[in-house]
Specification:
The complex is a heterodimer.
Chain A (H helix, E strand, L loop, with lengths): L5 H10 L4 H20 L4 H41 L1 H30 L10 E8 L4 E4 L3 H6 L6 E15 L5 E8 L2 H6 L5 E2 L14 E4 L1 H8 L9 E4 L2 E8 L16 E4 L4 H4 L8 E6 L5 H18 L1 H4 L3 E6 H6 L3 H32 L1 H9 L4 H38 L13 H24 L3 H9 L8 H37 L9 E7 L8 H15 L5 E7 L10 E6 L10 E8 L3 H5 L3 E4 L13 E5 H7 L9 E6 L2 E2 L3 E7 L14 E5 L7 E8 L8 H11 L5 E6 H8 L1 H35 L1 H9 L4 H30 L1 H4 L10 H27 L3 H7 L1
Helix pairs in contact in A: 1-2, 1-3, 2-3, 3-14, 4-12, 4-14, 4-15, 4-23, 12-15, 12-17, 12-23, 13-16, 14-15, 14-23, 17-23, 17-25, 17-27, 18-21, 23-25, 23-27, 24-28, 25-27
Chain B lengths: L4 H11 L5 H8 L3 H13 L3 E5 L2 H6 L6 E5 L1 H13 L14
Antiparallel strand pairs in B: 1-2
Classes of the chains: A alpha+beta, B mainly alpha.
């Protein structure tokens, strides 16, 4: 019979190698194959040779199954082991979850802000084109429409766009609303590579005033006011009282680049008239350009500087000493936040290192207590590879669970802490724990898991395990392992010191910044903006009259102690810098003195709590019919009239393309931090609103209710009573405006502080674990000491001293490292040295207290050692 | 999965209509000890799938049932990649349609 041949006898033999679950099918296939060969007339030799292949096939199946079997076996063991020691498993997974979770949260932020490219076409080639005033140490000033036209000569920029960020009153389809937006040249869309989601972009003809008014809506305003109705295209809406045709709707989350990004709800074409187009002194426009193909930033900068020099020579009145600077759009977008994120990344890197050291210490201690079990496995034939595989699988299981915890923690942390940072992040950055962050976090957890397992396996060589078996049940630690544990504790303390010291100086910096007196009393101040439409308020008298009536009506509301108006309030992100001329002091041709100009009502200084230092404040008599007057701040008086009084002196102000008449200085007020608390006050000039009325201004209310926002409905009604079509917008307390100005410092201090707290806790756990383990190891020795007359107090001191000694070594290393890396923090601090002895002192005391607390429980255990029991056990 | 020359040849043979083990052995010239493990790997990776032919067919031809292998879409993709790298694979003969 065929089956009796060698070829058919080999199949049942080889089948023993095949995993049982596929054995019968395997035999059936091979039986059929050999039979077919025989039916086809194959020689016996060829048949035998083919049958030998079955052995190879069976062997391959066995190896493959064996690997899966072993892996499953390791996995089962690892899970069972973790379940048997829930406290240990929990501690390891929580440590991994906290360390990697914090890292995941910061990675999500770094990924959204620094790593993902901006949503423009080839964003790396986009540049902002700024004016510079090197003589005044000012390097980024907005350009003028004149420059925009002149810069078209540059060959190194393939295209340019002009943008003016503005706000508009939107009426129709609901209540009147003041919304942010921009006017932009038609080139903006192709330059950035953006386009309306529906409808069209702007036509080049719409850059000029001759074109009919059109608007592109943002996705937000389209949904909010027009219920996402596509039929809005072609419809006429009223913007600042002018009928305007909707020609498009932008896609969601489309932002202007860099510092212009915001809630841009309306996109209008530039529609410049001849006067605006030729304006050489209104530095209120941002220019964005695209580097021409093959042109580097340096080449473009060189060409633009040459062009700027030529313009300065041909237009000395307006452009003398004005240079040009190109800044890549991606750099400008993240410049403010990048140092903070890099510091946070370093912080979480330290935290992950601490967490890793903690986990390694825990795993080593655990492995040490399992030497007996592992020795038995080794004795039963488990080779080195099997033991390594087991160790790696065990730590992988813990790391995987820790990784899942880390993703959850990171997601929570981002949601909870993002608001603290939100005002400092670019609006286009969508910070969230997405699939990319989750995969990076899980990947890091698994890599760490493999690393931990390999490290633990390296610390339990098979030979040593056999020795452990021979030595009986006593658990003893080798000197090498003890040294490794101590080193890990020292490393953790050192890293925790770095984090604590870094976060300490950041917190101190934030406290100092928050302590800066803004120069007025921001508490109880409510602010909101109004924009009078030109159609209804066409004359300065109408504007002044409205403001006078509004203030008079507002102060009658119970809960409002005073009301005033300022065209550019502190922390309102609007400076109004203008050139000034001082009477009797002819400036060199083109050499400008610059001061920020604000128009305020008579009660302004009193309402916000500013002081008139010299001369007088404004009164209701300072109106359009009286002599034009001005009040300067102390910084302006000291800079432009050093050693003399400016009172009764006269100045002119160049505002836009007009120059005011002479203004008589009648008073000096104290300095105010207008932009943010960290910047020194700049020269400022106040004018009576009645002498220089503007249609857009901010109303400030000094409230007495305790909660300034509670007055808002009454204020809204008072304004509505005067003009029902006037939207009241940007309503906020002054305190919240100041808080936003320190958002970055506050967010960074908060996140670093939380990171440092977690790091300190981990270091304390490490100290606790190390000392506890050391006490366990030294119980016989402590027993001998007690038997020889040592007091329990001296044993306690011995244990605590040991903890303090370890802490001291770690702290010394940590402080040295902190000093070395302190320059990283330099640029982020306000009025605080990066190496701050006071902060370092506090950190040292905190660590010492933590160290003592962590060693108390082990010390108590050592004190309770019964000498007789300890000696018997030994 | 790393596709070796032998594995690619086995996959190509199946793609060209050589459907059971010894037929692939015949056409590729590789020993059974190479072809069968290659088939197992390809099946594990989802590049081929196998099925037993209908009992009636085997019965009517008075022979045991054959286990047929067929290339999957994933296998076609993998083969295309491999062919791109190993151009000479295309020189393999076509199966006899009459067989």
């Amino acid at each position: 019979m065929i089956l009796r041949s060698f070829s058919h006898r080999i199949i049942p033999l080889a089948a023993w190698l095949v995993p049982s679950w596929r054995r019968s099918e395997w035999m059936r296939e091979w039986g059929a194959e050999l039979e077919h060969m025989q039916l086809g007339g194959c020689s016996r030799a060829k048949l035998s040779s083919a049958a030998v292949g079955a052995l190879a096939d069976a062997f391959w199946l066995r190896i493959h199954a064996l690997q899966i079997d072993l892996w499953w076996s390791d996995l089962r063991l690892a899970v069972r082991h973790a379940a048997r020691r829930p406290a240990f498993a929990l501690l390891v997974t929580i440590t991994i979850a906290l360390g990697l979770g914090a890292a995941g949260a910061v990675f999500a932020m770094a990924d959204a802000v620094l790593l993902r490219p901006l949503a423009y076409k080839d964003p790396a080639r986009l540049v902002f084109v700024w004016h510079t005033l090197p003589e005044h140490n000012v390097f980024e000033i907005e350009a003028t429409p004149f420059d925009y036209r002149a810069w078209h000569e540059a060959r190194s920029l393939s295209s340019l766009a002009l943008i003016a960020a503005e706000s508009f009153t939107l009426t129709g389809s609901g209540d009147p609303e003041r919304v942010h937006g921009c006017r932009a040249t038609a080139s903006l869309f192709s330059l950035l590579g953006i386009a309306p989601g529906i409808g069209r972009g702007f036509e080049p003809a719409e850059d000029t005033f001759a074109a009919p008014p059109v608007v592109i809506l943002s996705d937000g305003v389209w949904r909010r006011r027009f219920a996402a109705d596509a039929a809005v295209l072609g419809r006429s809406i009223e913007i600042d009282g002018i009928a305007t045709t909707v020609v498009g709707v932008m896609p969601p989350r489309t932002y202007l680049p860099g510092p212009l990004a915001g809630d841009d709800e309306l996109w209008l074409p530039m529609r410049m008239g001849p006067a605006e187009r030729d304006d050489e002194i209104g530095h209120n426009y941002t220019v964005v350009g695209r580097l021409a193909d093959g042109v580097s930033l340096a080449q473009a900068s060189a060409e633009m500087s040459t062009l700027a020099a030529a313009i300065a020579a041909s237009h000395p009145d307006t452009h003398k000493a004005i240079g040009v600077r190109l800044v890549p759009v991606p750099e400008q977008t993240v410049r403010g936040i990048r140092p903070a994120i890099l510091v946070l990344l370093c912080g979480v890197a330290l935290l992950v290192t601490i967490a890793s050291a903690n986990v390694i210490t825990l795993l080593l201690a655990e492995a040490s207590s399992r030497r007996q079990e592992l020795a038995v496995r080794a004795a039963l034939g488990a080779g080195r590879a099997r033991l390594v595989s087991l160790a790696v699988t065990e730590s992988l299981v813990l790391a995987a669970v820790g990784g899942l915890g880390a993703v959850t923690f990171a997601d929570w942390a981002v949601r909870a802490l993002l608001p603290a940072f939100a005002d400092a992040l670019p609006p286009a950055a969508e910070v969230a724990v997405d699939a990319r962050t989750a995969m990076a976090t899980m990947g890091a957890a698994l890599v760490l898991g493999i690393g931990f397992g390999a490290l633990v396996a390296a610390h339990r060589p098979a030979g040593a395990l056999t020795h452990a078996l021979r030595s009986g049940g006593r658990i003893s630690s080798s000197r090498g392992a003890a040294r490794t544990r101590n080193l890990m504790v020292i490393v953790q303390v050192a890293l925790a010191i770095i984090l604590l010291a870094g976060s300490g100086v950041m917190v101190r910096s934030f406290v100092r910044l928050a302590d800066v007196q803004p120069g007025f009393e921001p508490g109880d101040l409510l602010t909101f903006r109004l924009a009078l439409p030109a159609a209804s308020y066409s004359s300065p008298e109408a504007e002044t009259s409205f403001v006078r009536d509004a203030v008079a009506r507002l102060v009658t509301i119970p809960g409002i102690a005073a009301a005033a108006v300022n065209t550019r309030i502190p922390f309102g992100r609007n400076r109004g810098a203008n050139g000034i001329t001082i009477e009797g002091r002819p400036a060199a041709r083109g050499d400008m003195l610059i001061a920020d100009q604000r128009e305020v009502t008579a009660a302004y200084f009193q309402t916000v709590g500013m002081r008139v230092i010299e001369g007088r404040g404004f009164t209701d008599r300072d109106d359009a019919r009286s002599e034009p007057v001005a009040i300067v701040n102390r910084a302006m008086a000291q800079r432009f009239w050093p050693g003399a009084s400016p009172i009764d002196g006269r100045v002119r102000v160049a505002a836009g393309d007009e120059e005011s008449g002479w203004l008589k200085i009648v008073g000096i007020v104290n300095d105010v931090h207008h932009i943010d608390l960290s910047r020194l006050p700049v020269p400022e000039l106040y004018r009576p609103f009645a002498q220089m009325p503007l249609r857009t201004f901010t109303v400030l209310l000094r409230t007495t209710t305790g909660d300034p926002t509670s007055i808002a409905p009454l204020a809204r009604r008072a304004i509505s009573d005067l003009d029902a079509h006037l939207p009241l917008y940007d309503l906020r307390t002054m305190a919240s405006r100041i808080a936003d100005s320190v958002a970055k410092t506050r967010g960074l201090a908060l996140l670093l502080f939380l990171t440092a707290v977690v790091a300190a806790m981990m270091a304390a756990v490490a100290i606790y674990g190390s000392i506890w383990y050391s006490v366990t190891q030294r119980i016989p020795e402590i027993g001998v000491r007690l038997a020889l007359g040592a007091t329990r107090r001296s044993v306690c001191i011995l244990v605590v001293t040991r903890a303090l000694a370890t802490t001291a070594i770690g702290a010394a290393a940590g402080f040295v490292a902190s000093i070395v890396i302190s320059p990283m923090l330099g640029g982020l601090l306000f009025d605080t040295r990066a190496v701050d002895p006071g902060t370092y002192g506090v950190v040292l005391v905190v660590l010492a207290l933590l160290s003592v607390s962590a060693s108390l429980a082990p010390a108590r255990r050592a004190m309770r050692v019964d000498p007789l029991t300890a000696l018997r056990a030994d | 999965m790393r596709i070796t020359l032998a594995t690619a040849l086995v996959l190509q043979a199946i793609a060209r209509g050589h459907r059971y083990g010894f037929e692939v052995v015949d056409v590729t010239g590789y020993p059974t000890g190479t072809v069968y493990p290659a088939l197992r790997r390809l099946e594990r990776e989802g590049y081929v799938h196998s099925r037993w032919e209908a009992e009636r067919t085997a019965f009517s031809e008075a022979r045991p049932q054959r286990r047929y292998y067929e290339i999957t879409p994933a296998g076609k993709g993998a083969l295309a990649d491999a062919v791109e790298r190993l151009h000479f694979l295309v020189a393999l003969p076509m199966a006899n349609p009459a067989k």
